[in-house]
Amino acid sequence: MHWTTYLTLFLIGFLGSGHCLAMCGGFSILLGQGGGSRGGLLLRYTLYQCGKTLSYMFLGALVSLAGGALAGSVGFERLQIILGVLAGVFMVLFGLGYVTDWR
Description:
The protein has 3 helices and no strands.
């Protein structure tokens, strides 16, 4: 791979770490509470990470199956364009709302 690919992957991971910190940081801190042995703590963290990974895999498989089923349907391309435009419009409206304090 070219060095720009590595740089891009690093930046994506680095910029996404704020999401991980906000979404999972509290759960990770709570797992460390309650004392117990070092082995018990390791077991709690291991089970937490395995459960999180399995649930993401399961949800990804469900979304993939739903997307595959929709991709074969007639008119999916048009629906995809309409949903993309609607998402873009809402993103612009929310951005303007934050910038201008518009409610």
